[in-house]
Structure prediction request, 295 residues.
Amino acid sequence: MRPTPLAPVTALSRAYGLDLLAKHENLTPTRSFKIRGAAVRLQALRHQRGVVTATMGNHGWAVAYVAARMGVPAVVVFPEAASRVKVEHTRGLGAEIRVAGETYTDATDEAARIAATEDLELINDGGDLELMVGAGTTALEILQQRPDTDVILVPTGGGNLLAGVAICAKALKPAVQVIGVQAEGAASVYESWKAKAIVHITARTIADGLKGDEPGALTFPYLLRYVDDFALVSDEEIARAVGVALEEVGQVVEPAGAASLAAARSGREHWAGKTVAAILTGGNADVETIRACLG
Prediction:
């Protein structure tokens, strides 16, 4: 895939008193950053029988897309609350869809069971090194496109993107601040980071992509080592940011992706005068979700 744009958001920069840049991961072939990790992970496949993964949506879509291009069978497990649009796009790429439980944790448990009983290779979003490596290329592009970036805002569900971005960013530019952005009702990564121990929280938020119940065991040590801080945003702020993305960025951005814009607004005094890159992690929102956010 080509590098995604890192574009200035002029009106918001003036309004917030900072140099705000939008990293358009909503413009990848699967309209989210997840394709990065899927591409790296499937190239490291140990056998070709097939793969199974659990997802809230974007990760499964990305795995299905790359698997289809490689001719690898894919089973994708969604929880019952997953976005209809993401389920149907994943099915349209040829993946076998299964639904299990109410939460992402339920779907993850079912994916592990399927891997063991059906001899498929498990791809664990949040527990797979190649996924983290792929996610980290987002930071590589940001710092190549704008080396003067001071702050990177990273929407965070289970923490895989945050860990990858933090590792890469700190290697390239130790002074850059890496800030995880979580919904107030789904702040398991923040609470774990603060407690220095994994804390399980049942996620409650309008943003599907932020519904991580706990950080991945693989990612957590990197989060403790490299992440500078967190910003928590309410569902109301996230919904408002979806509208801001439409009006000021000219893009459909799903609630999880818009969370970085919400954080830029809420933390504008803290980052005044700085160059702030807000990662718009995805643009896969159905009409009903956008309508609900716009009120």
Summary: The domain at 6-31+129-294 is CATH 3.40.50.1100 (Rossmann fold). The longest helix spans residues 129-145.
